[in-house]
Specification:
The complex is a heterotrimer of chains A (157), B (283) and C (766). In chain A, a hairpin with a 2-residue loop joins strand 3 and strand 4. The longest helix of chain A has 15 residues. Chain A has two domains: 74 residues, Ubiquitin-like (UB roll) (Roll), CATH 3.10.20.30; 69 residues, [2Fe-2S]-binding domain (DNA polymerase, domain 1, Orthogonal Bundle), CATH 1.10.150.120. Chain A has five helices and five strands, in the order E-E-H-E-E-E-H-H-H-H. Chain A starts with a strand and ends in a 5-residue tail after the last helix. With 157 residues, chain A is an alpha+beta fold. With 283 residues, chain B is of the alpha+beta class. Helix content of chain B is 38%, strand content 25%. Chain C has 766 residues and is of the alpha+beta class. Chain C has three domains: 148 residues, Aldehyde oxidase/xanthine dehydrogenase, molybdopterin binding domain (Aldehyde Oxidoreductase, domain 4, 2-Layer Sandwich); 185 residues, Alpha-Beta Complex (Aldehyde Oxidoreductase, domain 3), CATH 3.90.1170.50; 325 residues, Aldehyde oxidase/xanthine dehydrogenase, molybdopterin binding domain (Aldehyde Oxidoreductase, domain 4), CATH 3.30.365. Chain C contains 19 helices and 27 strands. In chain C, strands 3-5-1-12-9-10-11 form a seven-stranded mixed beta sheet, sandwiched between helices. Chain C has a five-stranded mixed beta sheet with strand order 7-15-14-13-8. In chain C, a hairpin with a 5-residue loop joins strand 18 and strand 19. In chain C, helix 5 packs across helix 6, helix 14 packs parallel to helix 15 and helix 15 packs across helix 16. Chain C is globular. The relative contact order of chain C is 0.12. Classes of the chains: A alpha+beta (157), B alpha+beta (283), C alpha+beta (766). Chains A and C meet through helix 2, helix 3, helix 4 and helix 5 of A and helix 1 and helix 17 of C.
């Protein structure tokens, strides 16, 4: 079957298999920021935004993308043009191995788009569905709080 | 998995016709979480009901709540309707369920039909006396969830579409308690308790305990114990003890029957205490 | 210092922050086949018959490997230096399976679906054998022999299922206890726990244009992969190239060669790229775990608190294979006993036994973690019996700079060690700082109630090492570009730890350039010099030592050219701000001019140097850990309210990265202390092989970890540095156990401290 959807602002019309997972489709389309860590929805490495809301792409059928807007980390910023959240993650040392980073940044993006002034507890709660085994989370929380502060000062997109 | 077709149902009629046409080899999906986690090997056709008109949360005439089957748990958690219903009881319940990205996918209908014994939502809905509605070949049917779970409900939903969940209005307060190993984990035990107080006495009580590790059940003996009495600390503690005696408990990977029996008193008492405090706050 | 000591951004940060395709599986190779492994459903069985005909007839199946069609060479999956101290008890495929999840056969097919279907079509007839499912029963007379194969080597006592054993005595232990005024004895148990890197094991193997085998692998030990795969497959080492791209966490589990050998064998057979990855379930059943252990500690002390005798007795369960069995066992004692170096009488003994259970291996902390759990709980008990503050007891007994321990000489890496004097130690300061931050004196023994919750505080201390003395060797190459920038080629293996960054900082500091002037390449056995790899807390100290030497040599050569330009003798010159500068006259010349001249103009040469560094000793980092917990007395739930870790890792080359190591290790430790445990069925299988059922800490579970560094100057380390990668995981279990005791007065000796165990302990007491 073929479906239309929007991927990082670009229109896509692609052939998919009816049982295919969004994770596999996105990686097949070159979105390698979408990581497979468990395939059962627990780890969060495959998190993407569907119409702005974080979902597990491993548990989402690719067909569900039809007519919707998918954002992966590639859609947020690039090496030449970092998103403020990416800047903040780099600045605070929130990235160790980087495997959880794409999902973390996307849930943080979702949080800050609803709550520009979160408490540390709210940040922890919001990212608690995304596992990180390297950092102990402390610097990730710092990064999100730093990005929030900058967002409130207008540094955002 | 041998999924051959993916359909986008435009309304309930279409969803139902497709489901019936597959004769058991089709599956409805909205969030698709459970289906994607462990699809039945016999499923050939997926029927997406996300756009079948089953979204939406509204208050009914009696100040109850009507929630469409494909409303996501996160939509409920962030809705004004849920915040305004019973002092935000549902909002609080949803906060305990899984994690944000899963709540953005999973739907209330999915939670009702999957009916995992460890799940939090059936416990809350049973305590609330939720009624669910579904459409089958012949007609629209409805039943209290508690009653539905005593019937072969999985067979029913192989040939029916769950359409909505109705929550009655209550003049009182509910509280939810959950013990889990860590954030985002399923419950080792959960309970939902509600109390109505009139003239200083308990007018009605609702007590449901789940993840025992069996699916939630109301503890009517505990409810009877409470009604007509003054909601004192001693009474609520006694209710907790009685709950432990009345609930059916067992072992699973996460905890033993022994631990569950030991913890139910505190959990039920805590929920009742919070409900009682809130009722008093109302008065 | 200009660059060292600064929290510069990770040099590989931008690709990671933007999700660039930098991990092992992020490359798509045309025509790649998928490899999958058929795994044993039995804990112990003989393969009587294996029939692959039906599977081979399935269209799309390219190749099936099993014991009947591969070379049989014993080897170890432990990625350690050569000769490996682990027994050669593993084969590519064997006629016998030794645990649920052991390899039976492997398939290469054109798609994952076909590979899975092929696995189902392989017919295997097993003859089930009696299994050893309890380490206590492994050595019993008549117990089934797990490694009865004749060609295995290096097993301590195969007939009794003993993979490794150790027995070290210092002084006279019996006298030690009889001379002690107070004696305590404690046994602590560590269950099966796992690393859970977010990226599962994965590999891509293919033949290049010259028919050489390229293995792109998520590994901590590329050079050991090359050597061990060469051995297992009977290939010349020179035909293999191992490439390590960015790695999604390792923590020791990627110090094991458990996938590269199969992928390589398949790629050689089918002559096209083969992609293999573990599922998360396979990670639990068939990767590696921490060695489950029972550690008994007996302490004797004088009335004034001087520890006089320590006995440590270890039963380690290595599972079905003996990978890291001897060295992890050795480390239980070698990384713990020197901490209390005043005790003249020591006895450290134990064994690592085979069972038909999941295979243990290297995991951050490497035995020390299990040892400290028992030792530091025992110290808490000793303090109580002596009527002393446990903090004071530790201050009184711990090793100081300028002191030594006979253990350093007695226990090495699977052999004798080497005498060593501790040259830097700020443990006393760490203890005092931690006590201040947690509010030790305000909270200890106060049992503060908050509804049904009671609070308590507890502490533990620990040390680790920095690399393996006289064994770990790293080399580095520094290459000058003509524009005055540099390339740093290291075999050191950044697996998310930030080692590329700190190695660049060491080079930049030495060469007087900003860190941006250094581009790091790690690691590729064809293009980077040798490094033992990322384990044993070695990278900063050992690989950093190599980088420092190589950079110094390049600096010397630059100064020679600079001397020719400036007309000053080299000894008057130095490097600063990308210039050669005369310390006498202030005259200077930019590095770009030096580079262009050297490469193109006069007396042309490429300024380039390679240097090696062997750990001359293993300076221990030290740390003090303080936990404040709250215990729900009605449910048994334990929450960590605050956790403070204060560490002396020498000079932190990059404080943010060093803190990150400490924070991450502490949270992993909180994980095994409160939540994590692989549950084993009565038939030997893992009952919870998923992240749904095996819970690791989330951001909502842990408090803000206060990770504090107290710098010291380690004279043998690069710019004064020691290690930080492992030590943090040693603290949480004992500190939390001791805090629970402070809160509610019950001692817990087995982790994880589940609500079930805590509540049972509370009820049993009352």
């Amino acid at each position: 079957m073929k479906v239309y959807f929007e991927l990082n602002g670009e229109q896509k019309y692609v052939e998919i298999k009816p049982g295919e997972r969004l994770l596999d489709l996105l990686r097949r389309l070159g979105m390698k920021s979408v990581k497979e860590g468990c395939r059962t929805g627990e780890c969060g490495s495959c998190t993407v935004l569907l119409d702005g809301r974080p979902v597990r792409s491993c548990l989402t059928f690719a067909a569900k993308a039809k007519g919707h807007r998918i954002t992966t980390l590639e859609g947020l910023g690039s090496p030449e043009d970092l998103h403020p959240l990416q800047e903040a993650f780099l600045e605070t040392g929130a990235i160790q191995c980087g495997f959880c980073t794409p999902g973390m940044i996307l849930v943080a993006y979702h949080l800050l788009s609803h709550n520009p002034d979160p408490t540390p507890e709210e940040v922890r709660e919001a990212i608690s569905g995304n596992l990180c085994r390297c950092t102990g989370y402390a610097k990730i929380v710092d990064a999100v709080l730093l990005a929030a502060e900058r967002k409130r000062k207008g540094d955002w997109r | 998995m041998a999924i051959r077709r993916y359909h986008y149902a435009r309304d309930v009629d279409e969803a139902l016709s497709l489901l019936l046409a597959y004769e058991g080899r089709g599956a409805l999906l909205a969030g698709g979480v459970d289906l994607a986690r462990g699809p039945g090997t016999d499923v050939e056709g997926l029927i997406d009901i996300t756009a079948a008109g089953l979204g939406g949360i509204s208050r009914d005439a009696k100040k109850g709540l009507v929630i469409g089957a494909t409303v996501t748990l996160e939509e409920i958690r962030t809705s004004r309707e849920a915040r305004d219903y019973l002092g935000g009881f549902l909002t609080e319940v949803m906060r305990h369920v899984a994690t944000l990205p899963l709540r953005c996918m999973a739907t209330l209908g999915g939670a009702v039909v999957s009916a995992h014994p460890w799940a939090d939502i059936p416990t809350a809905l049973i305590a609330l006396g939720a009624e669910v509605a579904w459409r089958n070949e012949e007609r629209e049917e409805r039943a209290p969830l508690e009653e539905l779970y005593r019937r072969p409900f999985r067979a029913i939903f192989r040939r029916a579409v769950l359409t909505e969940v109705r929550l009655p209005a209550w003049g009182g307060a509910f509280a939810f308690e959950k013990v889990s190993r860590n954030a985002g984990d399923i419950a080792l035990l959960n309970c939902a308790c509600g109390l109505g107080v009139k003239d200083g006495k308990v007018a009605w009580a609702r007590v449901a305990v789940g993840a025992t590790p069996y699916r939630a059940a109301r503890l009517t003996g505990v409810e009877e114990l409470l009604v007509g009495e003054s909601p004192s600390a001693e009474l609520l503690a006694e209710a907790g003890r009685k709950a432990a005696a009345e609930a059916k408990v067992g072992d699973d990977l996460r905890a033993s029957a022994e631990w569950r029996r030991a913890v139910i008193p505190a959990l039920v008492r805590r929920a009742l205490e919070r409900a009682a405090r809130e009722v008093k706050g109302d008065a | 210092m200009k660059v060292v000591g600064k929290s510069v951004r990770k040099v590989d940060g931008i690709p990671l922050a933007t999700g660039q395709p930098v991990f092992t599986l992020d490359v798509d190779l045309p025509g790649a086949a998928v490899g999958k492994v058929l795994r044993s459903p039995y804990a112990h069985a003989e393969i009587v018959r294996i029939d692959t005909k039906k599977a081979e007839e399935l269209p799309g199946v390219l190749c099936i490997l099993h014991h009947g069609n591969v070379p049989r060479t014993p080897y170890t999956t432990a990625g350690q230096g050569w000769p490996e101290p682990s027994p050669y008890d593993t084969f590519l495929f064997d006629k016998k399976v030794r645990f649920v999840g052991d390899r039976v056969a492997a398939v290469a097919a054109i798609s994952e679906e076909i590979a899975d279907e092929a696995l189902r079509l392989i017919e295997v007839e097993y003859r089930e054998l009696p299994a050893v499912l309890d380490p206590e029963e492994a050595t019993a007379p008549g117990a089934p022999v797990i490694h009865d194969e004749e060609d295995a080597r290096g097993i301590h006592d195969p007939q009794r299922n003993i993979a490794a054993a150790i027995d070290i005595r210092v002084g006279d232990i019996e006298r030690g206890f009889s001379e002690s005024d107070v004696v305590v004895e404690t046994t602590c148990e560590f269950p099966y726990v796992q690393h859970v890197p977010l990226e599962p094991h994965c590999v891509v193997a293919y033949l290049d244009e010259e028919d050489r085998l390229v293995i792109r692998s998520a590994t901590q030990v590329p050079f050991h992969v090359r050597r061990i795969v060469a051995r297992a497959l009977g290939l010349p080492l020179s035909r293999i190239r191992v490439v390590k791209p960015r790695i999604g966490g390792g923590f020791g589990t990627k110090q094991e060669i458990i996938l590269e050998d199969v992928a390589a064998a398949l790629a050689l057979r089918v002559r096209r790229p083969v992609v293999m990855k573990y599922t998360r379930a396979e990670e639990f059943t068939s990767a590696r775990t921490r060695h489950p252990m029972k550690v008994r500690v007996k302490l004797g002390a004088k009335k004034d608190g001087r520890i006089h005798a320590i006995e440590m007795d270890v039963l380690s369960n290595t599972g079905a294979y003996g990978t890291h069995s001897l060295t992890v066992l050795s480390n239980v004692g070698s990384k713990t006993l020197p901490l209390y170096n005043k005790a003249p009488h020591l006895w450290f003994h134990g064994k690592a036994v085979y069972t038909n259970l999941p295979v243990a291996g290297a995991y951050r902390g490497y035995g020390a973690t299990q040892g400290y759990f028992a030792l530091e709980v025992a110290i808490d008990e000793l303090a109580e019996k002596l009527g002393m503050d446990p903090l004071e007891l530790r201050l009184k007994n711990h090793i100081r700079a300028g002191e030594s321990s006979p253990i350093f000489e007695k226990i090495g890496e699977g052999r004798e060690g080497k005498a060593q004097v501790v040259k830097s130690c700020a443990l006393a300061e760490c203890i005092r700082e931690g006590a201040k931050r947690i509010g030790w004196y305000e909270k200890r023994g106060k049992h503060l109630w908050d509804g049904p919750w009671v609070h308590g505080v507890g502490m533990a201390v620990a040390m680790q090492g920095s690399g393996i003395t006289d064994i770990d060797m790293a080399a580095a190459t520094v290459v000058m570009n003509e524009d005055g920038t540099f390339r740093l080629l290291v075999g050191a293996t950044d697996l998310g730890t930030g080692s590329d960054t700190i190695l660049a900082q060491i080079a930049a500091e030495t060469l007087g350039v900003p860190v941006e002037a250094i581009s790091v390449y790690s690691s590729d056995t064809d293009f980077t010099p040798f490094d033992t790899g990322a384990y044993a807390s070695s990278t900063t100290y050992v690989s950093g030592g190599a980088v420092l030497r190589a950079a110094r040599e390049v600096k010397r050569r630059i100064l020679e050219v600079g001397a020719a330009i400036l007309g000053d003798p080299p000894e008057d010159l130095d490097l600063a701000e990308s210039y050669v500068v005369s310390k006498k006259t202030g005259k200077r010349v930019p590095l770009s001019e030096v580079g262009h001249r050297a490469m193109y103009v006069t007396d042309q040469k490429h300024i380039i140097a390679t240097a090696s560094f062997v750990a001359p000793e293993s300076p221990p980092p030290f740390a003090a850990f303080f936990a404040e917990v709250a215990v729900d007395t009605e449910t048994g739930i334990v929450r960590v309210v605050r956790f403070v870790g204060v560490a002396d890792c020498g000079t932190p080359i990059n404080p943010a990265l060093a803190e990150g190591q400490l924070e991450g290790a502490i949270v992993q430790g909180i994980g095994h202390t409160l939540y994590e445990e692989m549950l084993i069925s009565s038939r030997g299988g893992v009952r919870n092989p998923s992240l749904f059922d095996y819970r690791i800490p989330t951001a909502a579970d842990v408090p803000e970890i206060e990770a504090v560094l107290i710098p010291t100057d380690e004279p043998t380390g690069p710019y004064g540095a020691k290690s930080i990668g492992e030590i943090g995981i040693n603290g949480p279990a004992p500190a939390i156990a001791n805090a629970i005791y402070d809160a509610v007065g019950v001692r817990l000796y087995r982790i994880p401290f589940t609500p079930e165990r805590v509540l049972r302990a509370l009820r049993t007491r009352s």
